[in-house]
Amino acid sequence: MKSLTSVLLLAALAVSGCAHEAPIKSAGADKQQHAGPHSAEAKGACADVKALPSNQCAETISAAFDSKGVLWIAWVNNDHVYVQSSEDKGLSFSAPVMVNPVAEKIEAKGEYRPKIKLDAKGNMYLSWTLKLEGRHSGHIRFSRSTDGGRHFSAPVTVNDNRDIISHRFDSMAVGKNGEIFIAWLDARDVETAKKAGQKFEGSSLYYSWSDDGGQHFYPNKRIATHTCQCCRLDTAIAPDNTPVVTWRHVFEGGIRDHALVKFNDWNTPGDTHRLGQDNWKIDACPHHGPGLSIADSGIYHAVWFSNSPTNQGLFYAYSTDSGRHFSTPLNFGKASSGHPHVLALGPRVNVVWQEFDGTHNVIKLIKSADDGKSWSKPEVIAQTALSGDQPFLVSDGQKMYLSWKTQQQNYQLKLIGE
What we know:
Oligomer: single chain
Shape: globular
Strand order of the largest sheet: 1-2-3-4
Radius of gyration: 20 Å
Number of helices: 4
């Protein structure tokens, strides 16, 4: 017999198709969107374009450490991307620096957010999705800083198809030699099929990359067709310095499970491998993308959400053969959980996710010290009565931290003990 949460979710799944992009979430995730009692007043202050920019007004924050252990965060306020740095692990931050001097509508909510990455030399790279006038349309934007975040290049559009269609849900990774890899969901094949009177399930996955620090990007190439068009991607760099991408795919029969591709080299995507066998048949938008982390040992660690009749909640699995096969999935979060993130540091692997307990938005953690073979019991590491951003894990190369933002409050960086 299904739990009440699962019944509520299954009822929600029936209301709309993915072509309309109505978000489908767990009952808990729906509650997580509820704002606090003073949210209207706070939003009014944050909407004041004359006010000083503040990350308190951001709905999403992305974070990364540089090679010197300095924390950098990226966020959006009033149509501008900003970055700040912290040399004391988030206790204090530098003044915000504007990335795009010309205001533009930026997607920065839920599974959308600007991305920030740094290379070994301290060069900083940002990508984000520019919201266009057409329904669910957008462009993938990019900017870089070569002077420690003091100045940024004029933003450029990475997708070479400039139609007012969907180019969204960008994900970025930086190689060992400073290569910049950006992948995104792209509707150009959908539009081609429409013109030919053909049906096209889902969207497509495209990418571009740069080998000169983001001064130029190679022409766009396709990784896969028939991807779910409404879930975040995740990208990582394998030990042999090639990109790896994971996403929610549309398999035959309308199954929306996850897939993974490891590149043979920076110009050549490898074979598509299936990540998990949940067999979730759904013609709607889960808005739950996967998470991926690759250890220096070469072990792939993946997390994801499913609500199939047999597999409900959050799952973890690992691969020791470059993503061709994965271990039996571990079901670590119930159906009311959402948006897991995973990070590996040597043999240590941590997973965080969010739940709603009826009163609070709760962030939970499980830990492994043996490459994901065994796990600790779930523990609550943060909570709020307000709405909150999705939780992420970041590392300075020595320790791991929770990166999290709650509504109209300061950004939080919390050390995770071993």
